[in-house]
Design a protein that fits this description.
Cofactor: pyridoxal 5'-phosphate
Distance between the termini: 48 Å
Largest sheet: 10 strands, mixed
CATH class of the largest domain: Alpha Beta
CATH topology of the largest domain: TIM Barrel
Protein name: Diaminopimelate decarboxylase
Pfam families: Orn_Arg_deC_N
CATH superfamily of the largest domain: Alanine racemase
GO molecular function, one term: diaminopimelate decarboxylase activity
Shape: elongated
Keywords: Pyridoxal phosphate
Structural class: alpha/beta
Radius of gyration: 24 Å
Strand content: 15-25%
Number of domains: 2
């Protein structure tokens, strides 16, 4: 069976009248961004790592959620911007991020992208062989400029013949391969150019279990490769992202803590570089762990109906708003209900969305008070990938409302038809 709903627990933040007022102003479904939780997450990650290894940098993964207001707040806290496209790079500049605090990653970079990043002295991690040629061309055009680059590397992470990568992939498609000699070849090519320095290694791997042991192995391998290939110029070790945040137990049991990851990773960094006069920076690129629990999604109950022996609750929302990967787990949720005069009925029900797809279930086999039209469900832990992967499908994108203590700010308005079908883009 599914989760029990946490009836009216959301009153701790917003009572029914406040939610109803936000509905009237922004539409009957909307995201809520908790800035205080965002600040708390940043401080917890920073403290866990920086208390163990002083030269530590958080590079927030824009692709996880690039709401401009959120990115700007993280920049204020001290986060670097980790971007994987020109769109995200330009957004970082637009919100005022210092260009030397932008980390440009990603598998597809044009020569113009690389030129802009190098002109701006951004951190850049080269992913493929073709990018090496762009950097060499740039060095020829700027012979008097000291050019610093990092390399994203690819090495075998399998344990006892089993790959920890997502969806069972045996090898990652990203980075410059160590095992086939590509890394050695790239290092030799770049070292042959007098004004190019390799200053960092990047090792982001998308793994299924996000185990501490995996991050320990990534860190060890990056340190060894850096000391082997360019020990005198190393400025940073970038272990990528993918660590667990503070995940609800209903979703993941016994997830590692920030301290668990930090203890394993920083111990290696200290061991490898303690004798260095200048300690290379340790870069972490958190995404899910930074923003997942900062967002909730509010959806108004529109109607209930019974088909055979199953009870369905229709809300003004969609599975695409809260679970873009369409996984089957129920998210933690709360019911904010108005005062009903009739007796509260307990039941088991399905929460379904506004689309015409049979699979549009926001939650299955939920047990609790049967909601009534005009009530609201608030779904927790929806900050990661929902905003960026939420398609404009059937309905316009909902509003995003940020709150920090008593201050409430609309940081994205609900779309109108003219914004949904932009006349500068579409031909009518």
């Amino acid at each position: 069976m599914g989760n029990m709903i946490e009836e009216n627990a959301a009153r701790q933040i917003f009572n029914y009248s406040t939610i109803k007022k936000l509905d009237e102003e922004n539409g009957s479904s909307f995201y809520l961004l908790n800035i205080d939780q965002l600040r708390t997450n940043f401080k917890k990650i920073e403290k866990a790592f920086k208390s163990r290894y002083e030269n530590f940098i958080i590079g927030y993964s824009y692709k996880t959620n690039y709401v401009p207001y959120l990115c700007k707040e993280l920049s204020k806290f001290g986060a670097y911007a980790e971007v994987v496209s020109r769109l995200e790079y330009d957004l970082a500049l637009k919100i005022g991020q210092e260009s030397n605090k932008i980390i440009l990653n990603g598998p597809l970079k044009t020569s113009e992208d690389i030129e802009k990043a190098l002109n701006n002295e951004s951190i850049i991690n080269l992913d493929s062989m073709y990018e090496i040629e762009f950097v060499r061309e740039y060095s020829q055009q700027h012979p008097n400029k000291e050019i610093k680059v990092g390399l994203r590397v690819n090495f075998d992470l399998s344990e006892n013949g089993e790959s920890p990568l997502v969806e069972g992939h045996e090898i990652s498609r990203f980075g410059i391969c160590v095992e086939n000699g590509d890394l050695q070849h790239v290092v030799e090519q770049l070292k042959a150019v007098s004004n190019i320095q390799i200053v960092g290694l990047h090792g982001h791997f998308s793994t299924s279990n996000r185990k501490v042991a995996t991050f320990r192995r990534i860190t060890e391998q990056l340190c060894q490769l850096a000391k082997e290939h360019f020990p005198t110029t190393i400025e940073y070790i970038d272990i990528g992202g993918g660590i667990f945040g503070e995940v609800p137990k209903s979703l993941i049991e016994n997830a590692p803590t920030f301290d668990d990851y930090a203890e394993a990773v920083c111990k290696i960094m200290k061991r490898e570089f303690d004798h260095y006069d200048y300690k290379p920076a340790l870069i972490l690129e958190p995404g899910i762990s930074m923003v997942a629990n900062c967002f909730t999604f509010t959806a108004k109950v529109i109607a209930t109906k019974k088909i055979n022996d199953q009870q369905f609750v229709l809300v003004d929302g969609s599975v695409h708003n809260i679970k873009p990967t369409l996984h089957k787990k129920n998210l933690p949720m709360k019911l904010v209900s108005k005062d009903h005069t009739k007796e509260k009925v307990k039941d088991t029900f399905q929460i379904v969305g506004y689309t015409c797809l049979e699979k549009d279930y926001l939650a299955r086999d939920v047990q609790g008070q049967l909601p009534q039209p005009g009530d609201y469900f608030i779904f927790d832990n929806v900050g990661a990938y929902t905003i960026v992967l939420n398609p404009p499908f059937i309905k316009e994108r909902p509003a995003i409302v940020a709150y920090d203590n008593d201050e409430i700010i609309v940081v994205r308005k609900k779309e109108t038809i003219s914004e949904f079908f932009n006349e500068d883009i579409y031909k009518f």
